[in-house]
Amino acid sequence: MAAVNSDDADKLAVGICGCARIAKKNASAVSSPFSSCRISAIASRTEEKATDFVYEVFGDEEQRPTHIFSGVDAYDNLLESKQSCDAVYIPLPTKLHDAYVGTALRNKKHVLLEKPVAVSAQSYREMLSIASQEGKFLMDGTMFVHANRTKEFVKAIPNANRVNFNFTFRGDEDFFKNDIRVKREGDCLGCIGDLGWYCVRMGLLVFSDLKADVLRQGLVKEVQVVNCELNDEGVPIDADCMVYFSGNRVLSIHCGFKHTLNQVVTIFGTGSEYASTITDVVLPHKGDHLNISLSKQHMIDYDQICIHDGKFLQSTNDIVQEVCMWHNFAKFARKIDEESSQAAADIESEKWWGGDSDEVKSANDIASYSLHTQIVLDALMESIQKGGVRIPL
User: Fold this and answer.
1) Which of 166, 209, 250, 381 is the most buried (most CB within 10 A)?
2) Per-residue confidence band for 3, with pLDDT thresholds at 50, 70 and 90
3) Measuring CA to CA, which residue among 114, 86, 95, 144 is closest to residue 22?
4) Residue 67 CA to chain centroid, in angstroms?
5) Secondary structure of the chain: what % helix, strand, coil (to 5)?
């Protein structure tokens, strides 16, 4: 394989555990010049998959990773390697996260972890505790968090008190038979973990007004799954959920694998002239700009005719959200390397990494949002298990 060229020497070296489809998308993002990262290692349990992954994703031989691990111990070998990488991306089934994240962190590697981050919030707390002890960054892979449009969307409606989020796609026969997202021994949270994660995260961002300290004060009060379909393994495949926040604010969710692709989120606010909507919130359309729709309706002619009025806010899309995510991951990881050993952490206050820089503060804030997203998912699963009752947090 090609040697590392001088332009890449200062970039964060990333290893990838697994060759799933989402790993290919993220490998392409990491390879972008703005990402501040480079792919240095790949691990797969079969040599054929590893080789196919490398040749499919890295057309330029100079960008191909210098370390390829294959076989039953491939993941462990990559994570325990001292020379292969500075950080790892783990897109493996949720039930495998505990073991591999712990191994990576204890081997002094930063971790970007696919969502859902864990089978439970307690499990994720333990991962964050290890990350704190080792002075290494642990971040979830929620892409839209890093997009400029998301910040603009959250701020578009004053006095927001209602968020509606639909995120669905229609799985085919092979999906329902073989995909890990419908397997109890794979991603046992099903559509709640795979799709509901994004919906909950958006609700937390909106109702905290992007302030993690507000989130940490007990923002969510109750949750309820009002309708749910389980498959034969007891994994949720379609669900309608309610998340109740302080101040009589509500997030309503429909997530599932049985309807056409839909990724629409709308924010309503008391006294606001408009409602704010994004129709491509998780997987954005291509183009130089991304839209936020501000719309309103009013009645005329003795309430016989409804008039629709609206406008668009545009956000630049010159750097896509996946690349922004990796750029931020590298930036925060570097600052944690510099500062965490010089300042005390405070895990009880959700400050896993010490340091005074904006980057370390942002790293702690992202970890808090990840943890509280998982806390809400735990409660939603409990509501399902108890027949749809309200679960207090």
Assistant:
1) 381
2) very low
3) 114
4) 27
5) 40, 30, 30
**How far, CA to CA in Å, does 301 sit from each of 202, 208, 297, 305, 371?**
38, 41, 14, 6, 51
Task: Indicate whether 2 pLDDT > 60.
Answer: no
Determine the residue type at 236.
P
Reduced to 3 states (helix: H, G, I; strand: E, B; else coil), residue 93 is coil
Predicted local distance difference test score (pLDDT) of residue 371: 98
Beta-bridge mates of residue 314? 291
Angle between helices 321-339 and 358-385 (to 10 degrees): 120
- CA 15 from chain centre, in angstroms, equals 19
- List, in sequence order, every residue forming a beta bridge with 305; answer none if it has no partner: 300
Burial of 302 (0-12, 13-18, 19+ CB in 10 A): exposed
> What's the predicted TM-score (pTM) here?
0.95
Angle at 281 between CA 227 and CA 195, to 5 degrees: 35
Q: What one-character DSSP code corresponds to residue 3?
A: P
Is the bond preceding 33 in cis, omega lying within 30 degrees of 0? no
- Nearest CA among 32, 9, 3, 36 for reference residue 335: 36
- Tell me the two tokens of residue 106: 């204890």
Alpha-carbon distance of 159 to 52, in angstroms, equals: 51
How far apart CA 49 and CA 195 sit, in angstroms, is 27
Strand boundaries in 92-198, DSSP class E: 110-113, 138-140, 160-170
Q: For residues 18 and 312, give the distance between their C-alpha atoms in angstroms, rounded to a whole number.
A: 40
218: left (phi over 0), alpha (psi -120 to 50) or beta: left
CA nearest neighbour of 374 among 157, 252, 192: 192
